[in-house]
Amino acid sequence: MSSLLKVVIADDHPVIRDGFTVLLSTDKDVEVLGTAKDGTEAVSLVCEMKPDVALLDLYMPEKNGIEALKEIKSTFPFTKVLILSSMVDDDVVIECLSHGASGILLKDWPTEKIIAAIKNSMTNQLVIPESFSSKLIDIWKETNMDSATSALRKKVQEIGIPLNKREEDVLLKVMEGKKNAEIAEELYLSIGTIKNYISSLYKKLGAATRDELMNYLSRHKKEEF
């Protein structure tokens, strides 16, 4: 399984799409899977390519960035979405975060900062310009975790997997990239108990490795139910 960070880019300006593609290609750990010129194409591209991160321009035809964000997160709740913009205010940032975005990327940031921000989003770090108030961090933590938990439980129920609540809790932590020790600490359980839950998840989901477990739900599109 490839260890590359897989990214898709959506922007209605070809110069921006091409520029970000070239920019990200300078990092050996990042692979651009494809680009889209509007929100509708962006949603289709994410469904087809299943990237780790989607970069969405805030203002696009067909569907704008927030509309595309909501649709992507409803189907692939663990795909990280970063909104691209030249200038945003607090209200826009809060709206993006409330719908599950991992942050905002300003288009005029230097290359190294943009790449670092994309990588940081994969470790659940909030990506916002320094000028925004710290209250946004608390809003993001609350809304992001609540939406992710709800989306996971809903998808598990739709697929019909017979998991109990504690197994769902462990699965959520695994899909966040948490290690056994971290999961044990956050759920107030022993590492041995966490290992037992993960073994049970392997069996129920037909997974042989942790990567397969993390990617299981993303392979099931809504239209397949």
From TrEMBL:
<dbReference type="InterPro" id="IPR001789">
    <property type="entry name" value="Sig_transdc_resp-reg_receiver"/>
</dbReference>
<dbReference type="Pfam" id="PF00196">
    <property type="entry name" value="GerE"/>
</dbReference>
<feature type="domain" description="HTH luxR-type">
    <location>
        <begin position="156"/>
        <end position="221"/>
    </location>
</feature>
<keyword id="KW-0597">Phosphoprotein</keyword>
<feature type="modified residue" description="4-aspartylphosphate">
    <location>
        <position position="57"/>
    </location>
</feature>
<protein>
    <submittedName>
        <fullName>Response regulator transcription factor</fullName>
    </submittedName>
</protein>
<dbReference type="InterPro" id="IPR039420">
    <property type="entry name" value="WalR-like"/>
</dbReference>
<keyword id="KW-0238">DNA-binding</keyword>
<dbReference type="InterPro" id="IPR058245">
    <property type="entry name" value="NreC/VraR/RcsB-like_REC"/>
</dbReference>
<dbReference type="InterPro" id="IPR000792">
    <property type="entry name" value="Tscrpt_reg_LuxR_C"/>
</dbReference>
<feature type="domain" description="Response regulatory">
    <location>
        <begin position="6"/>
        <end position="122"/>
    </location>
</feature>
<keyword id="KW-0805">Transcription regulation</keyword>
<dbReference type="Pfam" id="PF00072">
    <property type="entry name" value="Response_reg"/>
</dbReference>
<keyword id="KW-0804">Transcription</keyword>
